[in-house]
Amino acid sequence: MKKISGFLQFLLGFILGITLFTGGAALIGYVILTRFTAPPSKPVFSEEKPKASPIPSPVTASPSPSPSSSPTISPSPSPSPSPSPSPSPSPEATLPPGAYKAKVIWSGGLSLRSEPSRSSERAGGVAYNDEVMVLEKSADGEWVKIRAGNQEGWVRQGNLEKTE
Q: How many other C-beta atoms lie within 10 A of the C-beta of residue 69?
């Protein structure tokens, strides 16, 4: 009985030792990895630093100072406010018959296609939430031809949401 008890104590101690060693090694590895994976501080480049622009003072002194005359300081000219241009209202583009405005609701943006097919050539792209003008629908109704800026192309109907 004593032999079995001693063997069980050895086995239990061995398993406990291996478990503590493995846990300690995992903890040390975790601490080291978290230190190495922390993002470094953001570098500040010389182009980003604000440059102090020295303002030259318009102090003029007379060429030959005399005891009775002191240097004259000309007052600095005060900047006169220049009128800022007011934005002129842009004329709203008239929509062709049957066309309407929509916005892109696909979060990845859209690829414009030259023909209403997935296998057709890519003709451009439109970003998420951009406003576009829907010009026409394909025969099967799955594709619509849109105009975004100076680009025109076909996109899937379900990727747009009609706006008022």
A: 10
Assigned CATH topology for domain 100-162? SH3 type barrels. (2.30.30)
C-alpha span between 74 and 56 (Å, rounded): 13
Instruction: Report the distance separating Cα 132 and Cα 8, nearest Å.
Output: 77
* DSSP one-letter string for 98-126: T-EEEEE--TT-EEEESSSSTTSPEEEEE
pLDDT tens for the chain, residues 1 to 164: 667 788 889 999 999 999 999 999 999 999 988 888 877 777 777 766 655 555 555 555 555 555 555 555 656 566 666 666 665 554 455 777 778 889 888 888 888 888 888 888 888 888 888 889 898 888 888 899 998 888 889 998 888 888 87
pTM of the predicted model as reported, rounded to 2 decimal places: 0.43
Q: Rounded to whole angstroms, how far apart are CA atoms 85 and 90? A: 14
Whole-angstrom distance, CA of residue 101 vs CA of residue 163 = 6
Q: Cα–Cα distance between 160 and 164 in angstroms, integer?
A: 13
- Max distance between CA atoms of the chain, in angstroms, equals 121
Residue whose token pair is 């209403």 = 116
> SS3 of 64, please?
coil
Residue 40: strand, helix, or coil = coil
